[in-house]
Task: structure prediction
Amino acid sequence: MKFLAVIGNPIMHSKSPRMHNNAIKFLGLKGIYTRYCLNNDLFLKEELLKIGFDAVNITVPFKEKACKIADFKDEISTRVGSANTLCFKNNKIYAYNTDGIGFLQSIEEFKDIKKALILGAGGTALAIAYVLKQRGVDVYIANRSSKRLQYFNAYKNSLYKDLQDFNFDLIINSTSAGLMDEYLPCSKEILHQLLSNAKFAFEVIYNKETPFYKLCKKYDLRVKNGFEMLLWQGVFAFELFFDLKNQREEIKTAMLQALNLD
Result:
């Protein structure tokens, strides 16, 4: 019996338990997947090992710490310093990042993206920036404060207020603005200049139409929310949890069925 969870704060909105539990049932596996709200990451490693999880997904704001506590890391986690999936084997922690590949899978229909701007500088932004750059996309990062931008020295970056370039094919909101409130990631004036020139937009939040998502629709952009990214990162994580191969379509079908219950 596998004991699995998604770790974050806030966490009650997460649909990951629904996805994973349905896939477990659909494939006839033995396991249970739940939510776990963590107040801080001070003793993240000790707490996870003490509880006895077999594997976990990690969401905001603990992705960087999850990577730091790992004994072994996959290539993306190593490159970006952020992990959203941890597996525990023989008292060792193995870190993976399925956010980036989940994002790429979800924007397959967005063609000819040469230049992209990511709003926000958290762990999700790190993963998205890395996989886009690997695809040959010119990636820019903009953030509210300068502290987080130190992690994006490999990319052109600036504060929102210092943005000079407003010509991007794709605008991505990787912030939590709009998740528990009705805020935009940055000012309407800046977004007007960005969205007026863009072809595509992406909102990582998946469980509501955020102010950013609604604004993008007003500019007649082709916009997607994080639903498919959530789905695909979950599929890839599930493969790791149960060490599965050649069952990706079955996992996807089960998780999609669970998500469509709404």
Observations:
- The chain has two domains: 2-97+227-259, 101-224.
